[in-house]
Amino acid sequence: MDALGALAAQQAELAALVDGLDEAAWRRPSACPGWTVADVVLHLAQTNEMAIGSATGRFDEALADLTAGLGPAASVDEGAELMVARDRTVPAAAIFDRWRSSVARLRDALAAHDPGDRVQWVAGELSVQTLATTRLAETWIHTGDVAGGLGRPLPPTDRLRLIARLAWRTLPYAFTREGRELAGPVGFELTGPAGDTWAFGMDVDPQTVIRGDALELCLVAGRRVEGSSTALRGEGPDAGAVLALVRTYA
Questions:
Q1: 3-class secondary structure for 25-72?
Q2: Which of 9, 125, 158, 218 is most buried per CB count within 10 Å?
Q3: What's the burial of 180, exposed, middle or buried (CB within 10 Å: 0-12/13-18/19+)?
Q4: CA gap 167, 242 in Å, rounded
Q5: Alpha helical stretches, state H, the chain
Q6: How far is CA 204 from the centre of its chain?
Q7: Which residues are within 8 A (CB) of 140 and not within 5 positions of it... i.e. 6 or more apart?
C-alpha cells in the first residue's frame, strides 16, 4: 500500500470510531494526556491544515493563520497545545466537520503532486511522499488515543510498515535535534502483525540493530510507550539511544 492509500485507510478507521458519538462521548478523556477525544480530532484537523498549506505552497501563511493571536511557544508540542486550547470550546460536531473537510482537502492537495516533489514542513523540506507518511503516522498515533479513550482497541495493520520505515529513515533527524550523532548505520528487523519480517537497513552491515515487534517499535516512536517497557532488543553502540530518541514526528 502506498502512503496516500494507507493515509486514507487510517483516516477511515478514525472516522468509523467517532462517527455517531454524542457530545458526552466526544468530551471523554482520550489516551493522550490532558486531551479529550474532541481535542485529539481537533489537533488532527489543525495539523492537516498545516499539511495542506505545505502541499499548496503556503505553509507559512497556514501556520500564521493557525497560530493567530497565540503567544510564543517554546516547542512544537507547546504550540499544538495552544492551538487546541484556543479552539476546543466549539461543538464536537463542528470539530468533526472541520476534520473531515481537512481530510478531503489534504487528499486532493497531496494527490496533485509527484511523490518526490519537495515541500516545506515543520522540520524543513521533505518529499510529498514523506509528508503523507508523517500524516499517516500522526493519524495512527491519535487514532489509538481515541480508541483508548472510547475503550475500543483496534488491531494492528500492515500500515505500520510505512510508519516503522519512517521511524528508521528519520533517525538522523531524531539524533540531530537532540545534539547527538549516530556511531554508524542502524538496521531494524521487525515482526509485522501477520508474522512476516520487515527489514530496514539490514543490507548495509549495520553497527546497531533493533529487533522485535513492529507495533511496539511504532508505539515507542510515537511516544506512547517507553522502549524499556517493551520486548524490543537492541545490539550495538547506539541501541539505547535509538530506542530513546526514535520518533515519527517533528
A1: HHCCECCCCCCEHHHHHHHHHHHHHHHHHHHCCCHHHHHHHHHCCCCC
A2: 218
A3: middle
A4: 10
A5: 3-18, 23-26, 37-55, 59-67, 76-87, 92-111, 128-150, 160-169, 171-176, 214-221, 239-245
A6: 27
A7: 10, 159, 160, 163, 218, 222
Domain 160-245 fold is Nonspecific Lipid-transfer Protein; Chain A (3.30.1050)
Instruction: Take residue 87 and report the three cell numbers written for it.
Output: 479552539
Alpha-carbon distance of 38 to 23, in angstroms, equals 9
pTM over 0.90: yes
pLDDT digits (tens, 9 = 90+) for 159-176: 999 999 999 999 999 999
88-103 per-position pLDDT tens digit: 999 999 999 999 999 9
Distance between CA 25 and CA 10 in Å, rounded? 21
Distance CA 173, CA 194 (A): 30
Can you say whether the dihedral through the CA atoms of 180, 217, 250, 224 is positive or negative? negative
